[in-house]
Write a structure and sequence with these properties.
This protein is of the alpha+beta class. Strands 2-1-3-4 form a four-stranded antiparallel beta sheet, covered by helices on one side. β3 and β4 form a beta hairpin. The structure holds adenosine-5'-triphosphate and magnesium ion (MG). The site of adenosine-5'-triphosphate has 13 residues, from α1.
């Protein structure tokens, strides 16, 4: 899948100034990208925009565009968003369901009733 921020800004309702300002970033299918920066610079905020916590669970003001597979993320319902993007937390011992990242990924696919044959193609 592709992820593209176009002149994207986000301000938490609780803050006066935007946390993300004019972000332009394209991540193509298969690319691995490391986002680094000082504490409080907005790395987690950027991740939450990609996984849909922003705006579905965390409120604020957005401008510009975030395209997921070319689709405007703001037009996606939460369920469609979660089907596109998964989150692996840094503390693998505190994963959602399974004991490993692989088990958690399998759990999501089982819930979506994706046939095993299709999973092995990936
Ligand atoms: N839910 C929230 N409501 C209001 N402000 C928030 C919220 N979450 C984060 N912030 C603020 O947004 C800014 C960016 O925080 P964020 O957590 O994205 O930074 P970070 O780069 O991930 O930091 P760290 O390296 O410590 O994880 C900080 O000023 C933080 O206080
Ligand atoms: Mg963080």
């Amino acid at each position: 899948m592709s992820i593209e921020f176009k002149n994207f800004s986000f301000r938490y309702d609780a803050l006066v100034n935007p946390t993300l300002k004019g972000v332009n970033l394209r991540i193509n299918k298969g690319e691995k990208v490391l986002i680094i920066g000082p504490s409080g610079s907005g790395k987690s905020t950027l991740g939450q925009c990609i996984n849909g916590l922003i705006p579905h669970a965390i409120e604020g003001e957005m401008s510009g565009e975030l395209l997921l597979n070319g689709k405007d993320s703001q037009s996606l319902k939460l369920i469609a968003h979660t089907e596109l993007v998964g989150t692996v937390l840094q503390d693998t011992d505190s994963q959602f369901v399974g004991l490993t990242v692989g088990e958690d990924i399998a759990f999501a696919l089982e819930n979506q009733q994706v046939p095993v044959a299709k999973c092995t193609q990936w």
